[in-house]
Specification:
- The strands form 2 sheets. The chain has a 3-stranded mixed sheet with strand order 1-3-2, with helices on one face. A two-stranded antiparallel sheet has the order 4-5.
- It folds into 2 domains: about 1-65, no CATH class; about 65-130, Arc Repressor Mutant, subunit A (Orthogonal Bundle), CATH 1.10.10.
- The chain starts with a strand and ends with a strand.
- The protein contains 5 helices and 5 strands, in the order E-H-E-E-H-H-H-H-E-E.
- The longest helix has 18 residues, at about 10-25.
- The protein is α+β, with helices and mostly antiparallel strands.
Length: about 130
């Protein structure tokens, strides 16, 4: 069974939970939410693309003080696939055509750490900021 009805009250609750996990683990927005139960076939809720963008931007704006910089940082991290120092992050952003001041990047990194999307580990190699599951 597949449905794409975000007006259903249970849909919003499921999507909120999926959004939380997807942002924290993958720095991305879910396009489908699948529920698997032991004795029943899986149920997949398809998420309309426009609704994803609307919910994603609302979540980012509610969660972060500077969502544009934060989302650029998350995209850069997922693009390179490994941890980066603040200086490496500035270079990665610039190579993607995103010019942010050092202070803006530092503040955005701190926000992302504060909300649990990133951590800053110095005990592993490479050192620096990475997605929380890394």
């Amino acid at each position: 069974m597949t449905t794409s009805d975000p007006s259903r009250p249970d849909f919003a609750l499921l999507y909120d939970a999926a959004l939380d996990v997807a942002l924290k683990c993958y720095a991305d927005f879910p396009t489908h939410v699948t529920i698997r139960c032991r004795n029943n076939p899986p149920v997949t809720l398809g998420v309309p693309q426009g609704w994803i963008a609307e919910q994603g931007s609302q979540a980012a704006n509610a969660l972060l003080k500077s969502p544009d910089c934060c989302l650029d940082i998350l995209a850069a991290l997922t693009g390179v696939g490994h941890r980066m120092t603040r200086q490496a992050m500035l270079s990665a952003l610039e190579s993607r055509g995103k010019r942010w001041a050092d202070g803006s990047v530092g503040a955005a990194l701190a926000q992302l750490v504060e909300v649990g999307l990133l951590n800053n580990r110095q005990d592993i190699d490479p050192k620096g900021y990475g997605l929380a599951p890394w």
